[in-house]
Amino acid sequence: MFESLSDRLSGIFRSLGGRGRLTEENIQSGLREVRLALLEADVNFRVVKDFVERVREKCLGQDIIKGVNSAQQVVKIVHGELVALLGGETAKLNLQGASPAVIMLVGLQGSGKTTSAAKIANLLRKQKMRPCLVPADVYRPAAIEQLKVLARQLDMPCFPSTPDMSPVEIAGAAVELARTDEVRATALLLDTAGRLHVDEPLMEELSAIRAAVNPQEILFVADAMTGQDAVTVAEAFNARLGITGVVLTKMDGDARGGAALSIRAVTDAPVKFVGVGEKLSEMEIFHPDRIAGRILGMGDVLTLVEKAQSAIDAEEAEILARKLQKASFDLEDFRAQMRRLKQMGSLEGLLKLIPGLGNLREKLAEANAAVPEKELARTEAIINSMTMAERRDPDILNGSRRARIAKGSGATVAQVNQMVRQFDQMRHMMKSVMGGKGMPGASRRGFPGMGGMPPVPGLENLPAGRSGATRKKKKERRKKRRK
């Protein structure tokens, strides 16, 4: 998402660096490139025109603040305008009024309404609400069954719709069922039918459902891959139904971001959620300021912290800290931390949230290094090929054991040796750090300070520092291996 736009804008800002004052000439040349970058990202041409004009007015003739170069000044102005373009403040669901609150999902067929309904229900349950899913798409084959299966996966109630019922009838009956003592739902998520294109029968049906249940929220679900066409469809739905928000799906693909940047300006309906993966947990609240930061390569530390908090238990973190302090952190703990890391999403996606590491994948490709996900998978395969005793005491790994592990994991003996050596270095360094002795002899081959994160591939050629182990300890380990 936004990768090509982010790369283009970064290049433009670099070209503006080193200038003491923003003049008409250099601003015009820079904004010409910004205009092209936005149009290539499939942003609506009217939105691009207004955006560039606002940036030009704010940039023109501004004196550079002391210690801030011209490129940084332009980045600040563009960031502020991007936040405003994306909606300013984070838009929340308005579920005030009659209970249960009704959330109606509308959109074209194939946009991801059914899956989005389940994902949003999962988010609401984390906010201590009691959601109920309502399948109202009686036209698409297996649409009702699909939502019922998702409801079972989430262990939440689902209205027992049948294909012979009318959508208006389903909506009305679902509201009554939600008020019963058996269900007691506080939010209903209505998965409505879609079409391949906007037509009058569809709009009449959706208008009838809206009149029957008076939903607090009408969310338009748009496939981010459709780009500019999503804006056109959103305008049609907004004119007929008055949508209150937008859900963008498939934002983890190669979407250029044009829909996210255009929909708010064209329909005045804020983007409230974005789907960032196929799992039911991969739905995020849309934060304009954070998205603007990602577009401009500033990272998104707040989202990274939230992901970490959802994946890491505080009690387990304390136990891990004590193990690190005593150097009793073993490969069993290491594997558990890698699996925690996977729960937070792809490593590539996490690196993009860290300022300055967004283009690490391209740097690894230039160095012909393996991508982080492959390194993680190989490291886990090596650990899985060990016995419980070997994972708990890596010092017993002699030559024959390492050869067996390499054969079982599909790796080479050299790769097994490298993984064990780097783990040993990390363990001793963490003992020094957790014990308050600083970071003497820290190896630059990995990120051990991140609580067990495996070494970053592609950096093996950097000179290694001392492991921190004394000669006496090394001799003791060699004696154990010989035995």
Molecular structure report:
The protein is α/β, with parallel strands linked by helices and 483 residues long. It has three domains: 83 residues, SRP54, nucleotide-binding domain (Four Helix Bundle (Hemerythrin (Met), subunit A), Up-down Bundle); 186 residues, P-loop containing nucleotide triphosphate hydrolases (Rossmann fold), CATH 3.40.50; 177 residues, Signal recognition particle, SRP54 subunit, M-domain (434 Repressor (Amino-terminal Domain)), CATH 1.10.260. 53% of the residues lie in helices and 7% in strands. The protein has 21 helices and seven strands. The protein has a seven-stranded mixed β-sheet with strand order 2-3-1-4-5-6-7, sandwiched between helices. The radius of gyration is 27 Å and the shape is flat.
Got a strand count? 7
What is the straight-line distance between the termini?
A: 54 Å
Class from helix and strand fractions: alpha/beta
How are strands sequenced across the largest beta sheet?
A: 2-3-1-4-5-6-7
The percentage of residues in β strands lies in: 5-15%
* CATH secondary-structure class of the largest domain: Alpha Beta
Task: Give the tally of structural domains.
Answer: 3
| CATH evolutionary superfamily of the largest domain | P-loop containing nucleotide triphosphate hydrolases
Helix content: 40-55%
SSE string, helices as H and strands as E: HHHHEHEHHEHEHEHEEHHHHHHHHHHH
**Whole-number radius of gyration?**
27 Å
Provide the CATH architecture of the largest domain.
3-Layer(aba) Sandwich
Mean pLDDT, to the nearest integer, reads: 76
